[in-house]
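COURSE: Structural Biology Practicum
ASSIGNMENT: Worksheet 4, Part C
STUDENT ID: 0417
INSTRUCTIONS: Below are two proteins. For each, the amino acid sequence is given first, followed by its C-alpha coordinate string. Answer the questions at the end about the second protein only.

PROTEIN I
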Amino acid sequence: MIKLAVISDIHLGFGEGTERAPDSYDNAKQAFDILIKEEPDIILVLGDIFHEKIPKPEVLGKAIDLFSYVKRELKIKKAVVTKSIKNDKVSTERHEILPVVTIWGTHERRAGDAVNPVQILEKAGLVSTLHAESVLVEVGSDRVGLHGLSGVPDNYARSILSSWNPQLFTDVPNIFMIHQSFKELIRGNDESFLTLGDLPAGFNLYLLGHIHWNTELKHPSFGTPVLVPGSTVKTQLTKYESQKQKGVYIIKLAREKGDVKFLPIKTRPFFYNEISVDKKKPAEVLAEMSNLISKYLKEIYSKKPIIRIKLIGKLSEGSTPADLVFNLLYKEFGDRAILSLDKSDVVSSELEKNSSFLNEIKENKSSIDQIGIRILCKTMKENDIKKVEELLDFLAEGNLEKAREKL
Protein backbone atom coordinates (compact mmCIF):
# COMPACT_ATOMS: atom_id res chain seq x y z
CA MET A 1 0.00 0.00 0.00
CA ILE A 2 1.20 3.50 -0.85
CA LYS A 3 0.19 6.63 1.07
CA LEU A 4 -0.33 9.87 -0.84
CA ALA A 5 -0.85 13.37 0.53
CA VAL A 6 -2.76 15.83 -1.68
CA ILE A 7 -2.84 19.62 -1.43
CA SER A 8 -3.92 22.25 -3.95
CA ASP A 9 -4.12 25.96 -4.71
CA ILE A 10 -2.15 27.45 -1.82
CA HIS A 11 -1.78 30.76 -3.73
CA LEU A 12 1.31 32.09 -1.99
CA GLY A 13 1.35 35.87 -2.30
CA PHE A 14 -2.41 36.32 -2.34
CA GLY A 15 -3.50 39.53 -0.62
CA GLU A 16 -0.04 41.10 -0.58
CA GLY A 17 -0.28 44.63 0.80
CA THR A 18 -3.55 43.91 2.66
CA GLU A 19 -4.55 42.57 6.08
CA ARG A 20 -4.91 39.14 4.51
CA ALA A 21 -1.30 38.92 3.31
CA PRO A 22 -0.23 36.36 5.99
CA ASP A 23 -3.16 34.00 5.31
CA SER A 24 -1.75 32.08 2.34
CA TYR A 25 1.53 31.34 4.16
CA ASP A 26 -0.07 30.50 7.52
CA ASN A 27 -2.64 28.18 5.94
CA ALA A 28 -0.11 26.44 3.70
CA LYS A 29 2.27 25.87 6.62
CA GLN A 30 -0.57 24.45 8.72
CA ALA A 31 -1.69 22.18 5.86
CA PHE A 32 1.82 20.83 5.23
CA ASP A 33 2.33 20.24 8.97
CA ILE A 34 -0.82 18.10 9.01
CA LEU A 35 0.39 16.12 6.01
CA ILE A 36 3.92 15.68 7.36
CA LYS A 37 2.53 14.14 10.58
CA GLU A 38 0.79 11.52 8.43
CA GLU A 39 4.20 10.45 7.04
CA PRO A 40 3.11 10.09 3.40
CA ASP A 41 5.20 8.39 0.74
CA ILE A 42 4.55 11.19 -1.77
CA ILE A 43 2.99 14.66 -1.57
CA LEU A 44 1.02 15.71 -4.66
CA VAL A 45 0.42 19.43 -5.29
CA LEU A 46 -2.29 20.24 -7.84
CA GLY A 47 -1.12 23.66 -9.03
CA ASP A 48 -1.37 27.36 -8.19
CA ILE A 49 1.36 27.26 -5.58
CA PHE A 50 1.77 30.95 -6.42
CA HIS A 51 -0.88 33.62 -6.93
CA GLU A 52 1.10 35.48 -9.60
CA LYS A 53 2.97 34.31 -12.69
CA ILE A 54 5.94 36.45 -11.71
CA PRO A 55 5.87 36.64 -7.90
CA LYS A 56 7.73 39.35 -6.03
CA PRO A 57 11.13 38.30 -4.65
CA GLU A 58 9.69 38.43 -1.13
CA VAL A 59 6.96 35.93 -2.10
CA LEU A 60 9.41 33.66 -3.90
CA GLY A 61 11.70 33.78 -0.86
CA LYS A 62 8.89 32.73 1.49
CA ALA A 63 7.94 29.92 -0.90
CA ILE A 64 11.53 28.63 -0.89
CA ASP A 65 11.53 28.77 2.92
CA LEU A 66 8.24 26.82 3.06
CA PHE A 67 9.25 24.04 0.66
CA SER A 68 12.71 23.80 2.21
CA TYR A 69 10.94 23.21 5.54
CA VAL A 70 8.71 20.53 3.97
CA LYS A 71 11.71 18.78 2.40
CA ARG A 72 13.59 18.87 5.70
CA GLU A 73 10.71 17.60 7.85
CA LEU A 74 9.37 14.84 5.59
CA LYS A 75 10.13 11.37 6.88
CA ILE A 76 9.94 9.44 3.64
CA LYS A 77 11.65 6.66 1.83
CA LYS A 78 13.60 7.29 -1.34
CA ALA A 79 11.33 7.68 -4.39
CA VAL A 80 12.66 6.41 -7.71
CA VAL A 81 11.23 6.84 -11.20
CA THR A 82 11.55 3.52 -13.02
CA LYS A 83 9.74 4.55 -16.20
CA SER A 84 8.68 7.88 -17.69
CA ILE A 85 6.68 8.88 -20.77
CA LYS A 86 6.78 12.40 -22.23
CA ASN A 87 6.11 13.53 -25.80
CA ASP A 88 5.53 9.85 -26.70
CA LYS A 89 9.11 9.06 -25.68
CA VAL A 90 9.55 6.23 -23.18
CA SER A 91 12.52 6.17 -20.82
CA THR A 92 13.35 3.29 -18.46
CA GLU A 93 16.36 4.98 -16.93
CA ARG A 94 16.03 4.85 -13.16
CA HIS A 95 16.49 8.13 -11.35
CA GLU A 96 15.58 9.53 -7.96
CA ILE A 97 12.69 11.96 -7.78
CA LEU A 98 11.87 14.45 -5.05
CA PRO A 99 8.63 13.06 -3.55
CA VAL A 100 6.86 16.45 -3.64
CA VAL A 101 5.33 16.15 -7.09
CA THR A 102 3.45 19.10 -8.54
CA ILE A 103 1.77 20.36 -11.65
CA TRP A 104 1.62 24.11 -12.18
CA GLY A 105 -1.63 26.00 -12.37
CA THR A 106 -3.27 28.66 -14.50
CA HIS A 107 -1.96 31.41 -12.21
CA GLU A 108 1.63 30.29 -12.86
CA ARG A 109 1.56 29.32 -16.54
CA ARG A 110 3.77 31.44 -18.77
CA ALA A 111 3.84 31.43 -22.54
CA GLY A 112 6.44 29.67 -24.67
CA ASP A 113 9.72 28.73 -23.05
CA ALA A 114 9.47 31.30 -20.24
CA VAL A 115 10.30 29.79 -16.85
CA ASN A 116 7.43 29.85 -14.37
CA PRO A 117 7.87 30.09 -10.58
CA VAL A 118 7.08 26.40 -9.96
CA GLN A 119 9.92 25.46 -12.30
CA ILE A 120 12.18 27.72 -10.20
CA LEU A 121 11.27 25.63 -7.15
CA GLU A 122 12.16 22.54 -9.17
CA LYS A 123 15.52 24.02 -10.18
CA ALA A 124 16.13 24.71 -6.49
CA GLY A 125 15.62 21.00 -5.76
CA LEU A 126 12.41 21.50 -3.77
CA VAL A 127 9.73 19.92 -6.00
CA SER A 128 9.37 17.66 -9.03
CA THR A 129 7.07 18.87 -11.82
CA LEU A 130 4.91 17.08 -14.39
CA HIS A 131 3.35 18.53 -17.52
CA ALA A 132 1.73 16.20 -20.04
CA GLU A 133 3.97 13.54 -18.52
CA SER A 134 3.60 10.13 -16.87
CA VAL A 135 6.02 8.58 -14.37
CA LEU A 136 6.09 5.20 -12.67
CA VAL A 137 7.35 5.85 -9.13
CA GLU A 138 8.74 3.25 -6.77
CA VAL A 139 8.82 3.86 -3.02
CA GLY A 140 10.24 0.89 -1.16
CA SER A 141 8.26 -2.13 -2.35
CA ASP A 142 5.30 -0.03 -3.55
CA ARG A 143 4.73 1.53 -6.96
CA VAL A 144 2.30 4.10 -8.33
CA GLY A 145 1.71 5.68 -11.73
CA LEU A 146 1.47 9.47 -11.68
CA HIS A 147 0.11 11.34 -14.69
CA GLY A 148 0.01 15.14 -14.64
CA LEU A 149 -1.27 17.88 -16.94
CA SER A 150 -0.40 21.39 -15.76
CA GLY A 151 -2.75 24.31 -16.35
CA VAL A 152 -3.27 25.33 -19.99
CA PRO A 153 -5.63 27.91 -21.58
CA ASP A 154 -9.20 26.60 -21.45
CA ASN A 155 -9.61 26.95 -25.21
CA TYR A 156 -6.83 24.41 -25.80
CA ALA A 157 -7.37 22.06 -22.85
CA ARG A 158 -9.52 19.52 -24.69
CA SER A 159 -7.22 19.23 -27.71
CA ILE A 160 -4.07 19.06 -25.56
CA LEU A 161 -5.61 16.39 -23.35
CA SER A 162 -6.65 14.39 -26.41
CA SER A 163 -3.27 14.64 -28.12
CA TRP A 164 -1.41 13.74 -24.92
CA ASN A 165 -3.50 10.57 -24.42
CA PRO A 166 -1.64 9.29 -21.30
CA GLN A 167 -0.87 5.56 -21.21
CA LEU A 168 -1.61 3.54 -18.07
CA PHE A 169 1.10 1.61 -16.26
CA THR A 170 0.17 -2.02 -15.67
CA ASP A 171 -0.31 -3.74 -12.31
CA VAL A 172 -0.15 -0.48 -10.30
CA PRO A 173 -2.67 2.17 -9.21
CA ASN A 174 -2.70 5.06 -11.70
CA ILE A 175 -3.40 8.63 -10.52
CA PHE A 176 -4.46 11.41 -12.91
CA MET A 177 -3.75 15.03 -11.89
CA ILE A 178 -5.06 18.09 -13.74
CA HIS A 179 -5.50 21.82 -13.10
CA GLN A 180 -8.37 23.03 -15.29
CA SER A 181 -11.93 24.38 -15.42
CA PHE A 182 -14.77 21.83 -15.46
CA LYS A 183 -18.38 22.62 -16.35
CA GLU A 184 -19.74 20.47 -13.55
CA LEU A 185 -17.84 22.49 -10.97
CA ILE A 186 -17.73 26.09 -12.23
CA ARG A 187 -20.85 28.18 -12.76
CA GLY A 188 -21.39 29.39 -16.30
CA ASN A 189 -21.81 27.84 -19.69
CA ASP A 190 -18.39 28.32 -21.24
CA GLU A 191 -18.05 25.77 -24.03
CA SER A 192 -14.26 25.80 -23.65
CA PHE A 193 -14.49 24.24 -20.18
CA LEU A 194 -13.78 20.53 -19.90
CA THR A 195 -16.37 18.08 -18.63
CA LEU A 196 -15.66 15.09 -16.41
CA GLY A 197 -16.43 13.02 -19.50
CA ASP A 198 -13.29 14.43 -21.14
CA LEU A 199 -11.07 12.74 -18.55
CA PRO A 200 -9.23 9.74 -19.99
CA ALA A 201 -10.45 6.28 -19.02
CA GLY A 202 -8.91 3.63 -16.81
CA PHE A 203 -7.44 5.58 -13.90
CA ASN A 204 -7.94 4.56 -10.29
CA LEU A 205 -8.29 8.15 -9.09
CA TYR A 206 -8.68 11.64 -10.59
CA LEU A 207 -7.35 14.67 -8.68
CA LEU A 208 -8.54 18.12 -9.78
CA GLY A 209 -6.94 21.44 -8.92
CA HIS A 210 -8.15 24.96 -9.81
CA ILE A 211 -11.57 24.59 -8.11
CA HIS A 212 -11.42 26.34 -4.73
CA TRP A 213 -14.04 24.40 -2.76
CA ASN A 214 -13.67 20.80 -1.63
CA THR A 215 -15.79 18.36 -3.64
CA GLU A 216 -15.98 14.58 -3.99
CA LEU A 217 -17.55 13.12 -7.13
CA LYS A 218 -17.75 9.95 -9.18
CA HIS A 219 -16.76 9.87 -12.83
CA PRO A 220 -20.07 9.79 -14.79
CA SER A 221 -18.97 6.90 -17.02
CA PHE A 222 -16.54 4.84 -14.93
CA GLY A 223 -17.73 5.49 -11.37
CA THR A 224 -14.12 6.19 -10.40
CA PRO A 225 -13.51 8.68 -7.54
CA VAL A 226 -12.87 12.30 -8.52
CA LEU A 227 -11.44 14.38 -5.67
CA VAL A 228 -11.18 18.16 -5.49
CA PRO A 229 -9.19 19.26 -2.42
CA GLY A 230 -10.02 22.94 -2.92
CA SER A 231 -7.74 25.84 -2.05
CA THR A 232 -6.15 26.34 1.36
CA VAL A 233 -6.88 30.08 1.32
CA LYS A 234 -10.13 31.89 0.59
CA THR A 235 -9.47 33.97 -2.52
CA GLN A 236 -12.81 34.08 -4.35
CA LEU A 237 -15.16 34.77 -1.42
CA THR A 238 -18.00 32.80 -3.00
CA LYS A 239 -20.96 31.22 -1.24
CA TYR A 240 -19.32 27.82 -1.82
CA GLU A 241 -16.16 28.94 -0.01
CA SER A 242 -18.24 29.99 3.00
CA GLN A 243 -19.93 26.58 3.13
CA LYS A 244 -16.93 24.29 2.60
CA GLN A 245 -14.02 23.58 4.93
CA LYS A 246 -10.48 24.10 3.68
CA GLY A 247 -8.19 21.12 3.95
CA VAL A 248 -6.04 18.39 2.43
CA TYR A 249 -6.30 14.69 1.61
CA ILE A 250 -4.47 11.58 2.79
CA ILE A 251 -5.05 8.66 0.43
CA LYS A 252 -3.98 5.06 0.98
CA LEU A 253 -3.92 3.11 -2.26
CA ALA A 254 -3.70 -0.61 -2.86
CA ARG A 255 -4.36 -2.64 -6.01
CA GLU A 256 -7.74 -3.82 -4.76
CA LYS A 257 -8.99 -0.99 -2.53
CA GLY A 258 -8.09 2.34 -1.01
CA ASP A 259 -8.91 4.73 1.80
CA VAL A 260 -9.54 8.46 1.46
CA LYS A 261 -9.43 10.91 4.38
CA PHE A 262 -10.06 14.66 4.25
CA LEU A 263 -8.20 16.60 6.95
CA PRO A 264 -9.52 20.13 7.61
CA ILE A 265 -7.36 23.13 8.46
CA LYS A 266 -8.28 26.19 10.51
CA THR A 267 -8.68 29.35 8.45
CA ARG A 268 -9.82 32.92 8.95
CA PRO A 269 -13.61 32.92 9.61
CA PHE A 270 -15.63 33.81 6.53
CA PHE A 271 -19.32 34.71 6.37
CA TYR A 272 -21.30 35.18 3.18
CA ASN A 273 -24.80 36.57 2.89
CA GLU A 274 -27.08 37.93 0.19
CA ILE A 275 -29.62 40.68 0.83
CA SER A 276 -32.52 41.50 -1.46
CA VAL A 277 -32.95 45.24 -2.02
CA ASP A 278 -36.25 44.92 -3.90
CA LYS A 279 -38.43 48.01 -3.38
CA LYS A 280 -36.25 49.14 -0.46
CA LYS A 281 -34.79 52.58 0.09
CA PRO A 282 -30.98 52.84 0.41
CA ALA A 283 -31.24 53.80 4.10
CA GLU A 284 -33.24 50.63 4.80
CA VAL A 285 -30.67 48.48 3.01
CA LEU A 286 -27.75 50.06 4.87
CA ALA A 287 -29.52 49.53 8.22
CA GLU A 288 -30.11 45.86 7.37
CA MET A 289 -26.44 45.45 6.45
CA SER A 290 -25.36 47.06 9.71
CA ASN A 291 -27.57 44.72 11.75
CA LEU A 292 -26.24 41.66 9.91
CA ILE A 293 -22.59 42.65 10.45
CA SER A 294 -23.27 43.30 14.15
CA LYS A 295 -24.82 39.84 14.46
CA TYR A 296 -21.69 38.18 13.02
CA LEU A 297 -19.44 40.19 15.35
CA LYS A 298 -21.13 39.08 18.58
CA GLU A 299 -18.51 36.32 18.82
CA ILE A 300 -14.81 36.87 19.44
CA TYR A 301 -12.41 35.49 16.83
CA SER A 302 -8.66 34.93 16.90
CA LYS A 303 -8.44 36.63 13.48
CA LYS A 304 -10.62 39.32 11.98
CA PRO A 305 -13.45 37.56 10.16
CA ILE A 306 -14.21 38.22 6.52
CA ILE A 307 -17.81 39.34 6.02
CA ARG A 308 -19.07 39.47 2.46
CA ILE A 309 -22.52 40.88 1.74
CA LYS A 310 -23.87 40.79 -1.79
CA LEU A 311 -26.85 43.01 -2.59
CA ILE A 312 -29.31 41.80 -5.22
CA GLY A 313 -32.43 43.26 -6.78
CA LYS A 314 -34.08 46.56 -7.73
CA LEU A 315 -34.22 49.52 -5.37
CA SER A 316 -37.32 51.59 -4.70
CA GLU A 317 -38.46 54.08 -7.32
CA GLY A 318 -36.17 57.11 -7.53
CA SER A 319 -33.15 55.37 -5.92
CA THR A 320 -29.96 54.29 -7.67
CA PRO A 321 -26.97 52.12 -6.67
CA ALA A 322 -24.96 55.32 -6.25
CA ASP A 323 -27.14 56.08 -3.20
CA LEU A 324 -25.75 53.00 -1.46
CA VAL A 325 -22.65 54.47 0.21
CA PHE A 326 -20.72 52.09 2.48
CA ASN A 327 -18.32 54.57 4.10
CA LEU A 328 -20.06 54.55 7.48
CA LEU A 329 -20.12 50.73 7.56
CA TYR A 330 -16.38 50.55 6.88
CA LYS A 331 -15.79 53.21 9.54
CA GLU A 332 -17.95 51.46 12.16
CA PHE A 333 -16.80 47.88 11.62
CA GLY A 334 -13.47 48.10 9.78
CA ASP A 335 -11.39 47.61 12.92
CA ARG A 336 -13.21 44.34 13.77
CA ALA A 337 -13.88 42.74 10.38
CA ILE A 338 -12.63 42.61 6.82
CA LEU A 339 -15.65 43.76 4.84
CA SER A 340 -16.45 42.88 1.24
CA LEU A 341 -19.62 44.75 0.25
CA ASP A 342 -20.91 44.19 -3.26
CA LYS A 343 -23.66 46.15 -5.02
CA SER A 344 -22.76 45.15 -8.59
CA ASP A 345 -26.06 43.24 -8.99
CA VAL A 346 -28.24 46.13 -7.79
CA VAL A 347 -30.38 47.92 -10.36
CA SER A 348 -32.80 50.84 -10.27
CA SER A 349 -35.82 51.77 -12.34
CA GLU A 350 -33.82 54.48 -14.08
CA LEU A 351 -30.92 52.18 -14.86
CA GLU A 352 -33.34 49.53 -16.09
CA LYS A 353 -34.91 52.04 -18.48
CA ASN A 354 -31.49 53.10 -19.74
CA SER A 355 -30.48 49.48 -20.20
CA SER A 356 -33.64 48.74 -22.20
CA PHE A 357 -33.07 51.86 -24.26
CA LEU A 358 -29.48 50.89 -25.12
CA ASN A 359 -30.46 47.29 -25.86
CA GLU A 360 -33.15 48.57 -28.23
CA ILE A 361 -30.58 50.76 -30.02
CA LYS A 362 -28.22 47.79 -30.25
CA GLU A 363 -30.91 45.55 -31.70
CA ASN A 364 -31.91 48.20 -34.25
CA LYS A 365 -28.24 48.60 -35.25
CA SER A 366 -28.58 52.37 -35.50
CA SER A 367 -25.78 54.53 -36.87
CA ILE A 368 -23.58 56.55 -34.51
CA ASP A 369 -25.35 59.78 -35.60
CA GLN A 370 -28.76 58.23 -34.96
CA ILE A 371 -27.69 56.94 -31.55
CA GLY A 372 -26.34 60.38 -30.64
CA ILE A 373 -29.59 62.05 -31.61
CA ARG A 374 -31.69 59.58 -29.65
CA ILE A 375 -29.54 59.87 -26.54
CA LEU A 376 -29.65 63.66 -26.75
CA CYS A 377 -33.41 63.53 -27.13
CA LYS A 378 -33.66 61.35 -24.07
CA THR A 379 -31.32 63.58 -22.06
CA MET A 380 -33.23 66.73 -23.03
CA LYS A 381 -36.55 65.00 -22.46
CA GLU A 382 -37.44 66.18 -25.92
CA ASN A 383 -39.64 64.12 -28.19
CA ASP A 384 -39.22 66.30 -31.29
CA ILE A 385 -36.29 64.73 -33.10
CA LYS A 386 -36.57 67.37 -35.84
CA LYS A 387 -35.67 70.12 -33.34
CA VAL A 388 -32.67 68.14 -32.11
CA GLU A 389 -31.48 67.60 -35.68
CA GLU A 390 -31.78 71.36 -36.31
CA LEU A 391 -29.85 72.03 -33.11
CA LEU A 392 -27.02 69.77 -34.29
CA ASP A 393 -27.01 71.41 -37.71
CA PHE A 394 -26.72 74.89 -36.19
CA LEU A 395 -23.88 73.74 -33.92
CA ALA A 396 -22.06 72.19 -36.88
CA GLU A 397 -22.38 75.51 -38.74
CA GLY A 398 -21.13 77.47 -35.73
CA ASN A 399 -24.43 79.35 -35.50
CA LEU A 400 -24.67 79.50 -31.71
CA GLU A 401 -27.50 82.08 -31.66
CA LYS A 402 -29.84 79.81 -33.59
CA ALA A 403 -28.69 76.81 -31.53
CA ARG A 404 -29.62 78.63 -28.26
CA GLU A 405 -33.12 79.23 -29.62
CA LYS A 406 -33.61 75.46 -29.86
CA LEU A 407 -32.64 74.79 -26.23
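PROTEIN II
(use this one for the questions)
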Amino acid sequence: MSLTPAAYARWRQSAPGALTEELEQRAVFSLVGDPRGLRVLDVGCGDGAYAIRAARQGAEVFGLDQSRPMLEAARARATSAGAVVTWCQGDARALPFRDASVDLVLAVTTLCLASEPLAALNEMSRVLRPGGVLVVGELGRWNLWAVGRRFRGWLGNQFWKTAHFWTAAELRDILTDAGLRVSEMRGAVYYPPSATLARLMSRMEGTMAHFGGLGAAFIAVRAAKK
Protein backbone atom coordinates (compact mmCIF):
# COMPACT_ATOMS: atom_id res chain seq x y z
CA MET A 1 0.00 0.00 0.00
CA SER A 2 1.29 3.49 -0.83
CA LEU A 3 0.12 7.03 -0.51
CA THR A 4 -1.73 8.45 -3.50
CA PRO A 5 -1.03 11.74 -5.30
CA ALA A 6 -4.31 13.06 -3.87
CA ALA A 7 -3.16 12.23 -0.34
CA TYR A 8 0.10 14.11 -0.90
CA ALA A 9 -1.82 17.11 -2.24
CA ARG A 10 -4.19 17.18 0.74
CA TRP A 11 -1.25 17.02 3.14
CA ARG A 12 0.53 19.95 1.47
CA GLN A 13 -2.66 22.02 1.52
CA SER A 14 -2.97 21.65 5.31
CA ALA A 15 -1.22 24.15 7.58
CA PRO A 16 1.12 21.64 9.28
CA GLY A 17 1.70 19.87 5.96
CA ALA A 18 2.82 23.03 4.16
CA LEU A 19 5.17 23.99 6.99
CA THR A 20 6.58 20.49 7.35
CA GLU A 21 7.14 20.16 3.61
CA GLU A 22 9.04 23.45 3.49
CA LEU A 23 11.26 22.54 6.45
CA GLU A 24 12.06 19.13 4.97
CA GLN A 25 12.93 20.62 1.59
CA ARG A 26 15.02 23.30 3.29
CA ALA A 27 17.00 20.63 5.14
CA VAL A 28 17.62 18.60 1.98
CA PHE A 29 18.58 21.51 -0.26
CA SER A 30 20.83 23.03 2.40
CA LEU A 31 22.91 19.85 1.99
CA VAL A 32 22.60 19.85 -1.81
CA GLY A 33 24.01 23.34 -2.26
CA ASP A 34 23.86 24.84 -5.74
CA PRO A 35 22.71 22.14 -8.22
CA ARG A 36 23.11 24.30 -11.35
CA GLY A 37 24.64 22.33 -14.20
CA LEU A 38 24.55 19.02 -12.32
CA ARG A 39 23.04 15.81 -13.59
CA VAL A 40 20.59 14.87 -10.84
CA LEU A 41 18.62 11.68 -10.22
CA ASP A 42 15.70 11.76 -7.78
CA VAL A 43 15.06 8.15 -6.71
CA GLY A 44 11.55 7.56 -5.40
CA CYS A 45 10.53 10.98 -6.68
CA GLY A 46 6.83 10.62 -5.81
CA ASP A 47 4.85 13.49 -7.27
CA GLY A 48 8.01 15.38 -8.12
CA ALA A 49 8.47 18.07 -5.47
CA TYR A 50 12.24 17.69 -5.10
CA ALA A 51 12.95 16.95 -8.76
CA ILE A 52 11.02 20.04 -9.82
CA ARG A 53 12.80 22.26 -7.31
CA ALA A 54 16.21 21.01 -8.50
CA ALA A 55 15.23 21.56 -12.15
CA ARG A 56 14.08 25.11 -11.42
CA GLN A 57 17.48 25.74 -9.87
CA GLY A 58 19.23 24.82 -13.10
CA ALA A 59 19.96 21.10 -12.83
CA GLU A 60 19.40 18.43 -15.48
CA VAL A 61 16.99 16.21 -13.58
CA PHE A 62 15.68 12.67 -13.87
CA GLY A 63 12.85 11.54 -11.61
CA LEU A 64 12.31 7.83 -11.02
CA ASP A 65 9.45 6.12 -9.21
CA GLN A 66 7.72 2.74 -9.28
CA SER A 67 4.24 4.27 -9.24
CA ARG A 68 2.72 5.32 -12.55
CA PRO A 69 0.06 7.52 -10.88
CA MET A 70 2.80 9.35 -8.98
CA LEU A 71 4.75 9.93 -12.19
CA GLU A 72 1.65 11.23 -13.93
CA ALA A 73 1.10 13.66 -11.06
CA ALA A 74 4.77 14.66 -11.23
CA ARG A 75 4.53 15.40 -14.95
CA ALA A 76 1.48 17.58 -14.38
CA ARG A 77 3.17 19.48 -11.55
CA ALA A 78 6.32 20.01 -13.63
CA THR A 79 4.32 21.36 -16.56
CA SER A 80 2.48 23.73 -14.24
CA ALA A 81 5.78 24.90 -12.73
CA GLY A 82 7.50 25.30 -16.10
CA ALA A 83 10.18 22.78 -15.06
CA VAL A 84 11.87 20.34 -17.44
CA VAL A 85 12.34 16.89 -15.86
CA THR A 86 12.77 13.49 -17.49
CA TRP A 87 10.48 11.03 -15.72
CA CYS A 88 10.91 7.26 -15.74
CA GLN A 89 9.28 4.31 -14.06
CA GLY A 90 11.63 1.89 -12.37
CA ASP A 91 12.92 0.09 -9.31
CA ALA A 92 15.49 1.65 -6.97
CA ARG A 93 17.21 -1.75 -6.79
CA ALA A 94 17.89 -1.77 -10.57
CA LEU A 95 18.34 1.82 -11.73
CA PRO A 96 18.23 2.24 -15.54
CA PHE A 97 21.37 4.41 -15.60
CA ARG A 98 24.99 3.71 -16.49
CA ASP A 99 27.75 3.45 -13.91
CA ALA A 100 29.15 6.82 -12.78
CA SER A 101 26.66 8.78 -14.91
CA VAL A 102 25.11 11.05 -12.26
CA ASP A 103 26.54 13.94 -10.22
CA LEU A 104 23.90 14.02 -7.49
CA VAL A 105 21.30 11.54 -6.23
CA LEU A 106 18.33 12.55 -4.10
CA ALA A 107 16.43 9.92 -2.13
CA VAL A 108 13.75 11.43 0.09
CA THR A 109 11.53 9.09 2.15
CA THR A 110 12.63 6.30 -0.16
CA LEU A 111 14.59 4.02 2.17
CA CYS A 112 11.78 3.98 4.74
CA LEU A 113 9.59 2.13 2.21
CA ALA A 114 12.28 0.03 0.53
CA SER A 115 12.18 -3.73 1.11
CA GLU A 116 15.95 -3.87 0.50
CA PRO A 117 17.39 -0.46 1.45
CA LEU A 118 21.04 -1.50 1.14
CA ALA A 119 20.44 -2.89 -2.36
CA ALA A 120 18.84 0.44 -3.32
CA LEU A 121 21.77 2.40 -1.85
CA ASN A 122 24.27 0.21 -3.68
CA GLU A 123 22.52 1.09 -6.93
CA MET A 124 22.56 4.80 -6.08
CA SER A 125 26.28 4.53 -5.34
CA ARG A 126 26.86 2.69 -8.61
CA VAL A 127 25.34 5.42 -10.77
CA LEU A 128 27.17 8.22 -8.93
CA ARG A 129 30.44 9.44 -10.38
CA PRO A 130 33.48 9.31 -8.07
CA GLY A 131 33.11 12.25 -5.72
CA GLY A 132 29.41 12.50 -6.53
CA VAL A 133 26.94 13.25 -3.75
CA LEU A 134 23.93 11.44 -2.35
CA VAL A 135 21.48 13.38 -0.18
CA VAL A 136 19.05 11.22 1.76
CA GLY A 137 16.02 12.48 3.66
CA GLU A 138 14.37 9.97 5.98
CA LEU A 139 11.74 9.57 8.68
CA GLY A 140 13.35 9.73 12.12
CA ARG A 141 12.58 7.15 14.79
CA TRP A 142 12.66 9.03 18.09
CA ASN A 143 9.85 11.59 17.85
CA LEU A 144 6.11 11.92 18.38
CA TRP A 145 5.35 11.73 14.65
CA ALA A 146 6.90 8.24 14.52
CA VAL A 147 4.99 7.16 17.64
CA GLY A 148 1.68 8.14 16.05
CA ARG A 149 2.55 6.52 12.73
CA ARG A 150 3.65 3.25 14.35
CA PHE A 151 0.45 3.21 16.38
CA ARG A 152 -1.58 3.57 13.17
CA GLY A 153 0.41 0.66 11.74
CA TRP A 154 -0.43 -1.48 14.76
CA LEU A 155 -4.10 -0.63 14.19
CA GLY A 156 -3.90 -1.99 10.65
CA ASN A 157 -2.75 0.88 8.40
CA GLN A 158 -0.64 -1.09 5.91
CA PHE A 159 1.41 1.91 4.79
CA TRP A 160 2.72 2.69 8.27
CA LYS A 161 2.84 -0.97 9.25
CA THR A 162 5.60 -1.63 6.73
CA ALA A 163 7.46 1.71 7.02
CA HIS A 164 10.89 1.79 8.66
CA PHE A 165 11.87 4.70 10.91
CA TRP A 166 15.59 5.48 11.02
CA THR A 167 18.03 6.66 13.64
CA ALA A 168 20.94 8.89 12.67
CA ALA A 169 23.35 6.09 13.55
CA GLU A 170 21.51 3.58 11.33
CA LEU A 171 21.62 5.95 8.38
CA ARG A 172 25.32 6.59 8.86
CA ASP A 173 26.03 2.85 9.05
CA ILE A 174 24.02 1.84 5.99
CA LEU A 175 25.48 4.65 3.88
CA THR A 176 28.96 3.54 4.91
CA ASP A 177 28.08 -0.05 3.98
CA ALA A 178 27.15 1.22 0.51
CA GLY A 179 30.63 2.68 0.06
CA LEU A 180 29.66 6.28 0.80
CA ARG A 181 31.34 8.76 3.12
CA VAL A 182 28.93 10.73 5.33
CA SER A 183 29.97 14.37 5.65
CA GLU A 184 26.98 16.17 7.16
CA MET A 185 23.72 15.39 8.88
CA ARG A 186 20.87 17.53 10.19
CA GLY A 187 17.41 17.11 11.60
CA ALA A 188 14.15 18.92 10.89
CA VAL A 189 10.58 18.97 12.17
CA TYR A 190 11.22 18.89 15.92
CA TYR A 191 7.66 19.90 16.78
CA PRO A 192 4.89 17.35 17.45
CA PRO A 193 2.04 16.74 14.94
CA SER A 194 0.02 19.75 16.02
CA ALA A 195 -0.74 22.80 13.85
CA THR A 196 -0.58 25.15 16.84
CA LEU A 197 2.69 23.77 18.22
CA ALA A 198 4.14 23.61 14.72
CA ARG A 199 3.67 27.36 14.28
CA LEU A 200 5.20 28.10 17.68
CA MET A 201 8.11 25.67 17.65
CA SER A 202 9.09 26.03 13.98
CA ARG A 203 10.87 29.26 14.91
CA MET A 204 13.47 27.18 16.73
CA GLU A 205 14.17 24.85 13.81
CA GLY A 206 17.32 26.69 12.74
CA THR A 207 18.88 26.24 16.15
CA MET A 208 17.79 22.63 16.58
CA ALA A 209 18.74 21.46 13.06
CA HIS A 210 22.30 20.65 14.13
CA PHE A 211 21.25 18.53 17.13
CA GLY A 212 21.03 15.47 14.91
CA GLY A 213 18.27 12.88 14.72
CA LEU A 214 17.12 12.77 18.34
CA GLY A 215 13.65 14.31 18.46
CA ALA A 216 13.62 15.07 14.71
CA ALA A 217 10.81 13.66 12.59
CA PHE A 218 13.01 14.08 9.50
CA ILE A 219 16.74 13.42 9.13
CA ALA A 220 18.75 14.63 6.13
CA VAL A 221 22.22 13.24 5.36
CA ARG A 222 24.86 14.20 2.80
CA ALA A 223 27.30 11.52 1.71
CA ALA A 224 29.86 11.32 -1.10
CA LYS A 225 31.05 8.43 -3.21
CA LYS A 226 34.61 7.52 -2.35
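ANSWER KEY EXCERPT:
Q1: The longest strand covers residues 128-139.
Q2: The mean pLDDT is 91.
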